[in-house]
Structure formats: structure tokens, C-alpha cells
Amino acid sequence: MTSDIFSIFNPGKIKINGELIDFTIKDLEILENLGSGAFGETKKALYRPKDLVLAVKYEPKPSDIESVKMKYLKTEIMALQNSDIPEIVTYFGMTFDEGKCVLLMEFMNSDVDSLYKKFKEINPGKWFDERALCIIAVKLLKALDYLKEERRVLHRDIKPDNVLVKKSGEVKLCDFSMAAIFERSKSAATTKDTGAPGYRAPERFLGTTEDDGRFGVRSDVWSLGITLVEIARLQHPYNKRGVKSFEMIVNIVSKDPPFLNLDESFNNGYSKETVDFINTCLTKEVSNRPYYKDLVEKDFYKKNIMAEDNNAYMEKFLQNFF
């Protein structure tokens, strides 16, 4: 296989402030490991020519242009490369190194999974800060709706680990390694075994689909709801200590959704508007569950996304943890 098939990714180029620059792997100084997952590992690195700190993701280089890995890589880079909203991590470029694809992205200070666990340590017995959760919710929804409406991309792996925060107060969606393109990849959109099991919608286990025969936006809306419940209550609603994987799946499929209880929510300072917004994402019957386009029309979204002090509030909130 020649390197020509990778020319669509423009390898060996990094784009900074609109300037396209040649670069090699030697321009990077690895600073520390940030984590690893099913599709590779991520490291913090310094791009020395510009003194720019980056997040560098290493993924296996696909061996065949028609391989599943190649399709996922194309979707991941396309989603990042063409996204121009501040709620999605910035993509700078890519190259190859020792049989791996190396993706250069914006460095963020933490994922929300780590953030809420730090909050839990400092504030035992409390729920997550409501205003911070509302900001995370609407920023995440804005990113997901943008991907669907402007890029025809379905994320399919929504969870706290894939929502990032920066000390300056920014909240961004990341990790498109399981994403699917609606028009070009119906087979990918119909795949049910994607994303972490604890965040999959009931229909993904049952094999029931939406009207067009796919697991679409409304399956991701469920994942959004689970993510928000987890952040609010500082623990995953299904994947609790001692619960085995099969038992968790049975609970997702057969039991009532893990709605936020109004009384408990009020005792933790949450408004009915916040609770209702989160709970509507967890409508069990997929045909009754809202789309992104329905959620962005709700007063909860409009009020919180338009608040001018969102970044300032998050910056002050995050000072407690970094």
C-alpha cells in the first residue's frame, strides 16, 4: 500500500493560526502520558518550533484503504478537521511514526470524568455544581447538534471521558474514533456494538432501530442523558461497584431509566428545569425520545447557551481543581 491513499489527510503538515507548516515527529517533545483507550494512546507534547503544547493521539495505521480502521480514521479526521466551533477540540494536523497515525490536537486540562471525581473528593455527599453541569450540558449539545446538522456526523461514544475542560473555562467534545457519517456509511450507523456499554441506549442491546433502520441521533441523546446523570450524582447510574456487565445490561434494557428524582434534586439545589431537561433525554422508548433539534429549542438550552458569563463561571469553578 502506498502512502498516496493517506494524502487526503495532508500528513506532515500542521495548521496554526491559518498558517500551514511542514513538520516531522522530531518537532515534538513528549511531556507526559495522558491516557489510553481501545483506539490508541494520548500524550501531552510540546511542538518546539511554536512553543505550543498539544495533545498527541497515537493510533494504529490502517493496513488497507477499505478496512474498518481506515473508515473510522477518515471520519475522525474529517469531523475534527472541518469543525469550526469552539465546543469541539481544535485539530492541527497529523503525521506517521513507526506504523502509527499521529494526530495533533488542542491540549485541554482535564476530562469531565476526572473533574467530577475531584469534585466528589472535595465535596463528599454533595451533587455536582448545577450551573457548571448546565454549561457542560449545553456546550456538549451544541457540539453534537453541529456535527449532525453541519457535518452529518454521529459521535456514538458520548461519556464524561470524552468531554474536556480547560482552565480558561472552555468545554469541548473530543474523540471521534467511533463516529459515523450518516450518508456515506449506513453500515457504520447501523452498528449497535459501538461506545461503552454503560452509555448505550436500550435499543442498541435489543436491536430495535429508528424509522430509517439506523441507530441514530436518539441513541446518542440517551448517552447524553446518562452522561449528565452521572456527572450530577457523581457516579454512573448503572455501572456501580459490584455490578457485573450482564447485570448492568439487563438493568438498562428491563428497568426504568435512571431519572433524577425531583425531591433529591431540589435538596441538592437543582431546578426543575434542569431535572426535566436531563430526564427527557432518558425517555426509554426511542420513538418518543427527542432529537437534538428538539433539545436545542427548549428554554433550558436557549437560556444557558446564551449566558455571557459561561466561560468566566467555569474558569472560576475550575480553579478549585487545577
From TrEMBL:
Its EC number is 2.7.12.2. GO terms for molecular function: ATP binding; MAP kinase kinase activity; protein serine/threonine kinase activity. Keywords: ATP-binding, Kinase, Nucleotide-binding, Serine/threonine-protein kinase, Transferase. It comes from the Eukaryota. ATP binds at K57. The keyword DNA-binding does not apply. It is an enzyme of class 2 (transferase). Residues 28-301 form the Protein kinase domain. InterPro entries: Kinase-like_dom_sf, Prot_kinase_dom, Protein_kinase_ATP_BS, Ser/Thr_kinase_AS. Belongs to the protein kinase superfamily. STE Ser/Thr protein kinase family. MAP kinase kinase subfamily. This is mitogen-activated protein kinase kinase. It comes from Acrobeloides nanus.
